[in-house]
Amino acid sequence: TEHRHHALWLLLWFLFLCNTWFQPWYILWGLALLAIQPWRFAAARVVAVFCATSMLSYLAGVFLLPVLGWPGDSAEWNALASLLIYLPPLLTLLWGRRLRLAQQFGRLRAVALRTRQSGEDGIQESGVRSQ
To answer: Of 15-19, 27-31, 88-92, 109-113, which gets the smallest average pLDDT?
Structure first.
């Protein structure tokens, strides 16, 4: 199961960061990997949102592009399409990871406080005043 777990995250990493040309059908790979591990609810949310936003790219190209009047190969259109496709799944991913990130931040903060307190205790024991 570890390979399946890592394969899905590797695919999402590739689609978010490495892929310079995106087609909505690419997300079918994520659906296939998710189908063999249906218990992964956080990954299912991210893949479901990614599926929806990737399909919205078709609608945006047909309806939004003519309204804006931008050429289909302009930098503005590509930036907007990238935001429409990638931003919601990335926000979903971060939202799902918020508790884990908060716990890790809390642990790091506790370690830093303990280190600081032990350093101050060592200074006070040696007879030097801490300020």
So the answer is: 109-113
How far apart, in whole angstroms, are the C-alpha atoms of residue 52 and residue 42?
A: 16
Q: Could you tell me the pTM of the whole model?
A: 0.68
**Rounded to whole angstroms, how far apart are CA atoms 104 and 106?**
5
Q: Exposure of 122 by Cβ count < 10 A (0-12 exposed, 13-18 middle, 19+ buried)?
A: exposed
Please report the pLDDT score of residue 120 as a whole number: 64
User: 95, 99, 63: which is closest to 81 by C-alpha?
Assistant: 63
Instruction: Look up residue 21 and give its two tokens.
Output: 């040309």
- State the Cα–Cα distance between residues 65 and 89, nearest whole angstrom: 22
Q: Nearest Cα to 28, choosing from 56, 1, 3, 8?
A: 8
Given a cut of 80, is residue 119 above it in pLDDT? no
State the residue for tokens 């936003």.
Answer: 53
User: Is 77:68 a contact under the CB 8 Å cutoff?
Assistant: yes
